[in-house]
């Protein structure tokens, strides 16, 4: 039995509320169980110097956790004067994951920055950030299309992410913190809406896993991404 009482292939309750901030070109609050992330998208008529003049657009991301998003207060990284390695790794993951679903030629020479701020953490914050980040990106691109600034939709497919792992010897979908902290194996699966893989992060923690178990986790991840993509499309319809 999972601590939450969920079935092995059952996700936490997912909700996506859009247009939650006044100024951002796209925004949403995604809730996956007790993990809550605010995602905003900012449009800018510029690109990084390394692609300037190429005609290609750029999507990038920043990620952060609020001091009381966890059970004890974390010091703000700004107060420390630098970002931690985990933060840098996650925001790079979010950026490259979202870019995988974008036709950068159709986007044109402009940048969209996705900011993901974790309000409350209970496991799976990077997966929630990617999934909610795509919703904010979709809303921002919709504004470009409506204004006639671009004529072709640059978003190829929804991009969503879900965690899976081996908990108490069983493959489970969408780990919350009690499961994540004790899982023998855990992984993050980032996919397009058509289930093509963008990235897989898997590691054994105190255990090992077989090819069959990995295939079971892949099957669970596909189910989770299918459900998330449906939520994304419903939220942005």
From TrEMBL:
Q: Provide the residue positions that the database annotates as binding phosphate.
A: 86, 124-126
Question: What's its catalytic activity?
Answer: tRNA(n+1) + phosphate = tRNA(n) + a ribonucleoside 5'-diphosphate
SUPFAM superfamilies documented for this protein: Ribonuclease PH domain 2-like, Ribosomal protein S5 domain 2-like
UniProt keyword terms in alphabetical order: Nucleotidyltransferase, RNA-binding, rRNA processing, Transferase, tRNA processing, tRNA-binding
- EC number of this enzyme: 2.7.7.56
The entry lists its GO molecular-function terms as: 3'-5'-RNA exonuclease activity; tRNA binding; tRNA nucleotidyltransferase activity
Boundaries of every Exoribonuclease phosphorolytic domain copy: 10-140, 158-224
Kindly list any coiled-coil regions of this protein.
none
Q: Which InterPro entries match?
A: ExoRNase_PH_dom1, ExoRNase_PH_dom2, ExoRNase_PH_dom2_sf, PNPase/RNase_PH_dom_sf, Ribosomal_Su5_D2-typ_SF, RNase_PH, RNase_PH_bac-type, RNase_PH_CS
Task: Kindly list the biological process annotations in GO that this record carries.
Answer: rRNA 3'-end processing; rRNA catabolic process; tRNA processing
Enumerate the CDD domains for this protein: RNase_PH_bact
Q: Which Pfam families match?
A: RNase_PH (PF01138), RNase_PH_C (PF03725)
HAMAP family, alphabetically? RNase_PH
Under the subunit heading, UniProt states: Homohexameric ring arranged as a trimer of dimers.
Name the family: Belongs to the RNase PH family.
Describe its function. Answer: Phosphorolytic 3'-5' exoribonuclease that plays an important role in tRNA 3'-end maturation. Removes nucleotide residues following the 3'-CCA terminus of tRNAs; can also add nucleotides to the ends of RNA molecules by using nucleoside diphosphates as substrates, but this may not be physiologically important. Probably plays a role in initiation of 16S rRNA degradation (leading to ribosome degradation) during starvation.
Record-given protein name: Ribonuclease PH
